[in-house]
Amino acid sequence: MRTHTILIIRSLGLFLLLLTAFSIGLRAADGDPEDYKLRLEGAAWFGKATGNIYYNGDYIDLGRDVGLGSTISPTFQVDFKPWRKHHFFFGAALRDVSNEAALSRDITFNGQTFAVGGSVATDLRWNTYFLGYQYDFVRRRWGHIGIAAQLNVLDMKAKIAATGTVSGAGASPTAQGTAEGSVLAPLPVLGPEVRVYVVPNRVFIDGDIKGMYFFGYGQYIQAHAGLGINFNRHVSLVGGYLLEGRTVVHGDTNRLGVKATQAGAVAGLEARF
Question: Which DSSP string corresponds to 199-235?
Answer without folding.
Answer: ETTTEEEEEEEEEEE-TTSEEEEEEEEEEEEESSSSE
